[in-house]
Amino acid sequence: MRNINNHLSEAITDIETTKGATKELFLLRGLPGSGKSTLAKSISGIHFEADMYFMKDDKYQFDITRLKDAHQWCQEGVEKGMTVLNQSRIVVSNTFTQAWEMEAYMELAKSWNYRVFSIIVENRHDGVNQHSVPEDKLQVMKDRFEFKL
Description:
There is one protein chain. By secondary structure, the protein is α/β, with parallel strands linked by helices. It has one domain (4-14, 21-144): Rossmann fold (3-Layer(aba) Sandwich), CATH 3.40.50. The chain has helices at 4-12, 36-42, 67-83, 103-111, 135-144, and strands at 24-29, 46-48, 55-56, 59-60, 89-93, 115-120. The strands form two sheets. It has a four-stranded parallel β-sheet with strand order 2-5-1-6, sandwiched between helices. Helix 1 crosses helix 3 (67-83).
């Protein structure tokens, strides 16, 4: 599927690394269709999401048997953004319905001194579920969504 190095080289063409700046990691959480990807694109910085792994020739080709690989790809990209590219701002937009799903990112942030912002994106705008996730799967996600106030 998608090569992480190609994604990184595409992303850094528009991003200038600011040495000495506060390093920030934004974790955008929410159900499919909530606007996570749209918001991520509006925040300056390098952007990752597991769904990017399934893009081939500009088409989304989801394969549930590769979901673990997709999340590993996303985490490795974030780690390279922190360590190799020294990016001051990294944005990750995944569903993150449960706290444990963010743990690997929290550990990376702690290791590389990034301040973490966990942002829940709500679908208050009748956003479209771009990947046609079935309604019963959306309900399962809603029912297990954890948050800490």
